[in-house]
């Protein structure tokens, strides 16, 4: 390979790192610096302790973790984290339960329909997310569309009072994030070689056994991708709990928003964000390692 | 029933020489009391406007090695898939051991299939692929482990049980697919183009291994192929298929030496075909006139012919003799000029132009039985072609 080609390749490889550095690491450093500051009546509303690399020693000596400590001391914060984790997990699970059969049916549909079906899945994105969540508020509110329909059919006799409950948040979250589950699942299921299922049937597998032993394991990458795509944004979600939730659905995203915009406590909001990131990055890093290990095991022969 | 496959010709035997006389011992299709293991009765399968399988009737017998030969797209795979249970016939019935299985789902049929694409489970190891069918049967673990080892030994893949399919060569994958389909010890194994993905040398070696395996296990094999050499090498009987119909079902030597019609004659092996008009029929000896050739005579027992009738006559290239001197016989000879000599190693294919420059080419094959490089014939030689009365074949359309 010529030197200029080698240089070109190095530049190509460098671009994503540059991107990551510029738009992830640098902002992260700024937020971290904010989290280690004190709130102040100023513009921007914080007084940084870290003034530059020159005073690193002084900064470390006086290192002040009060914002982070508060997150663990005050039940409001860690309970919000737990609520977020629970709701995000429930959302992911429900999206999987609904999304898998949906994606399966899409992949099994005649090929000429599949484009249309994919279009239908992404169609909601053409309307503002906010409007769609508001629409759910209209559906779920007492004497809203849902109650009217159920009571009109004689299935219920009084309003369900779903709005401002965790159930409403879950409904809104599953509705909003379902496409992120369906699309990667559809992509893996659609690639699945149908002759593998025939081979399974040929060897005596009932349709259920063929699903369990062939389809499910081979769609695992799609399940993991869909789960990550739902779980990660779901855990920091604040619009849906704000519009559909009640007092008991204090999700961490909402807390962050309140600290930032209502209380103007930027350092505390930054600390919330940093911990949220850690909560997300840790399990993802573990998942990544597990997948690498699996690929590595498959890669070396006996 | 004897073991028909023991007496097959060695791989280096001359091409296309009939081993029929030794194979004749095994012919259950001629025994009225023999019970077929599989029977197709007037089976039809359509895909929209395409009739993929058109009124096929066929019986396979236990321990038979049956080959289904036909051009790509003629319906071979569809016929096999109906037997495995992946397609439902539009009409007719399929019997297995005398029982109609048309309504039995694939996973309950005691038939196994080796897929053209192999269809190995990519997420399972070689051993788990082979064990797959045994696990579905619910066999105890030690028994499964024993059978997997047995199968790995059978296809000579000992020690590779823990590999994943993508860590194997094409030939090894083919063996895993074979082992997997044999693991349940089916009475009937279907093989869809089992050698299509192998290179030529490997293909020939595998053909003989497959034949040995089949006679060792006593399993009935039905092989689909578009390769006539493969079908003729392996099969006890074969069927030639064209556009959904079976044109002829017979042992390979009969297919070659007594083709049922012109399509079969031209599809299996090389043949020179010309139109002729019958002059006289005296018992079995028929005399006729053909353009560019003149008087010809041939034996014909099967087809009833009448004077004045037009028929297609076929002459296999190896049945024609080539000489510089005019042969003494009064008929079945023609003068020509050598236009092309194709040297193939074991034999030489000569193209001879008869009837002058605007005439037609006939193919003649010569066996290269000596190592002499100087050949008796050269380009532009004036030569005589001649043949026996047994050589000419009447080919119904
Ligand atoms: N699932 C299907 N849908 C529509 N047409 C099909 C299908 N399977 C096979 N065919 C058609 O039926 C004919 C026979 O196909 P096939 O049995 O695969 O042939 P072969 O195996 O001899 O190459 C072809 O014309 C093919 O296009
Ligand atoms: Mg085929």
Task: Please tag this protein with its features.
heterodimer, A: 302 residues, mainly alpha, MetI-like fold, two-stranded antiparallel ribbon, 14 helices, 2 strands, B: 397 residues, alpha+beta, Rossmann fold, OB fold (Dihydrolipoamide Acetyltransferase, E2P), 2 domains, six-stranded mixed beta sheet, five-stranded antiparallel beta sheet, 9 helices, 22% helix, binds adenosine-5'-diphosphate, binds magnesium ion
Question: What does this protein structure show overall?
Answer:
The complex is a heterodimer of chains A (302) and B (397). Chain A has 302 residues and is mostly helical. Chain A has helices at 3-35, 56-61, 66-73, 75-108, 111-122, 129-140, 145-152, 166-191, 194-202, 207-218, 220-235, 239-244, 252-262, 266-299, and strands at 38-39, 46-47. The two termini of chain A are 35 Å apart. In chain A, helix 13 packs antiparallel against helix 14. Chain B has 397 residues and is an alpha+beta fold. Chain B is elongated. Chain B has 9 helices and 20 strands. Chain B starts with 19 loop residues before the first helix and ends with a strand. The chains are: A mainly alpha (302), B alpha+beta (397). Magnesium ion is lined by residues 76-77, 116, 193 of chain B.
User: Which chains have the largest interface?
Assistant: A-B, 22 and 30 residues
Cα-atom radius of gyration of chain A = 24 Å
**Sheet with most strands: strand arrangement of chain A:** 1-2
**What letter string, H or E per element, gives the SSE order of chain A?**
HEEHHHHHHHHHHHHH
Q: Tell me the series of helices and strands of chain B, N- to C-terminal.
A: HEEEHEEEHHHEHEHEEHHEEEEEEEEEE
- What is the CATH H-level superfamily of one domain in chain A? MetI-like
- Helix-residue proportion of chain B: 10-25%
As residue ranges, the low-confidence spans of chain A are none
Helix/strand/pairing category of chain B: alpha+beta
Number of beta strands of chain B: 20
Give the terminus-to-terminus CA distance of chain A.
Answer: 35 Å
Count of extended strands of chain A: 2
Instruction: Report the structural category of chain A.
Output: mainly alpha
Mean of pLDDT of chain A: 87
Report how far apart the termini of chain B are.
Answer: 37 Å
